[in-house]
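#onboarding

Welcome to the new folks! Below is a worked example of what a typical request in this channel looks like: someone posts a single protein sequence, and someone else replies with the predicted structure as tokens. Don't worry about understanding the tokens yet, we'll cover that in week two.

Example request:
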Amino acid sequence: FNPVPGARGSGLGRMLSMLADFKRMQQRMHNKLFIADNAMGVSGGRNLGDAYFGNAESGNFVDMDVLAAGPVVQELSRSFDSYWNNQRAYPVQSLITRKELDALRSSFDASDAATPATPNPTTEPQGQPQGSDAQRAYIWNQEPMDLAQAGLVWAPAAVLVDQPAKIPSDEPNGAVPLPERAPSGASPLSITARKTPGTPAAAPVAGDAATDTVVDGLLQLMGYARKELLIISPYFVPGPDMLQAFAAARARGVRVRVLTNSLASNDAPIAHAGYARHRPDLLALGVELYEMRSEQTSLRGAFSASGGLGGSGASGSSRAMLHTKLLVVDGQLLAVGSMNLDMRSQRQNTEIALLIRSTALSIQVTESIEQALSAQAWQVTLTPEQRLLWRAPQGSGLEDSSTEPDASLPLRLILMLLGPLAPDHLL
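Example response:
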């Protein structure tokens, strides 16, 4: 979908191709979906790669997914079809040569042959008190899972998805965007766009692809909050609409807590610059900011309160990078998906999220996150002199820090030099 047109085998050639079409190359299909037989679906922020399943040596991502069944899976499937059948989607055979395709398949075969038939005990995720031997067998022995025993929470759910037309497609002359066919069907749980004072209005499922986006829909939902907003966004670069939504929430007395990456845990340090420039203003509003530690004893430990809701991961010390994207509204409404709270997700990338109305599931997720906030994250505060102070997690044995914790001096210097030059919408 929306591929780089040429020089895919050459890093330099790929970079030159991207520079020649810079605007389009900044717009990416960021959706993540896994659907089986139109009966079960997985939605969240996880990509397919070793680092997203706790198997990378240099560092692994902490992620959270939702397993869904029932009518909402049909809606997820329709969103897939709308991208698969879109004019911007190309068969891989049209992008690389047969020789390159054969070489790619051979590399997959070699990787499969090198994978042990049984798990390496040094990379087996640490068990949780709520985990059972049967659950571990599902993961490591690939035994069939009896979904009747999976403990699913039954609740109303809806799909929020950006239309493919969010990424424009030009005519050969490069002038006129092609008309776009909207995804077929309608969400079984509709969300009415209502204007709340101080918040932007949006229609998160249907409408003008250029203005009605998943992130806009989430901002609208924030406008309905009366008690609390709990947010996880790995790349957190709030644009004007988001800052307005936070200010409106705080004016209503809503508690707002945000967990994002620290500079040390961020796999894209330049993106941290956009967040860093907004930290003082967010703290002045009363937004509570937390930054995840880069060193975790286990990836599952990052979200362990509810039985390992976080991404699977290796035991032992590993660099952890936050990749979960979610929103909990008033302990009743939960959104899990591919979107970050940044301008790239709002205006450039296409995104998808699963919106679930469930007090039970919201409480379960909140308990899991609160454990991470207290034990695995630095809390960013302002001193009486209006200087930033990172408060160490409880029981960590670490000391509070007046500079970006765990980040090297060269990394901090890069942030200081390049940060002012990086525009928010490109981070």
